[in-house]
Amino acid sequence: MSARPSQRVSYAQSDPGATPVVATERLTLRPHRIADADAIAQSLGDFRVSRMLAPVPVPFDRQDAEEWLSSVTSGLLPGWTLAITTGDDVHLGVVSFEWRAGAWHLGYWLNRFFWGRGYMSEAVHAATSRFLIRMPGVEICSGVFADNQASLRVQEKIGFRITGLSEIYSTARNAMVPHVETRLLAGDFRPAQPRGKPANR
Fold first, then answer.
1. Residue 78 burial (CB < 10 Å; 0-12/13-18/19+)?
2. What's the CA gap between 61 and 56, in Å, rounded?
3. Contacts of 134 (CB under 8 A, 6+ apart)
């Protein structure tokens, strides 16, 4: 998911350090490896996934995955790109924090066959919690295409607020698509709720 670049810088860029390993109840978030290429190509080769991500081309193949992995494993880019994996190290998706246009941006995606199990919420919450420990007080931008309400709920659960509506070009759809812009303000991050327990209102 991709948001319009921020026009306001509320803090100086700093480096969150090396991508960590983050364990959750059901998942392990870890740095990527070149060996993840096949799984990534399979996931992003699915149009139902790629259509929700602004920069992903169609078709998306192993060479595309290898080129992307070369950049995120180079250590030259600020931020984190975490592989979402199961206990037996099956690659399910990605959560990333990328510095661009003067702001930190959250992005994420999940293999379609693992939708509807709460994995995305679990991974995004854990990754954001760890990122904010490393980078206290920062604001994080994100966003979703307007027809991806499930992704918007993932963000709203942890405290992201809608800040505007724009249009962003989707490479997979070959069209401009309405895009809901969001931001997590400093201090708005919400603690995780136990699975199956509704949040207090």
1. middle
2. 11
3. 16, 17
Per-residue pLDDT tens digits for 107-160: 999 999 999 999 999 999 999 999 999 999 999 999 999 999 999 999 999 999
Taking the model in full, what pTM does it have?
0.89
Degrees (nearest 5) of the Cα angle 171, 120, 17? 85
Single-letter code of the amino acid located at 162: I
β-strand 28-31 against 22-23: which pairing, if any? antiparallel
Instruction: State how far the Cα of 35 lies from the Cα of 76, in Å rounded to an integer.
Output: 19
Q: Measured between alpha carbons, how far is 101 from 30 in angstroms, rounded to an integer?
A: 26
Partners of 141 in the β-ladder: 105, 183
Q: β-strands 103-110, 161-170: how paired?
A: unpaired
**Across the strands, what pairs with 144?**
180
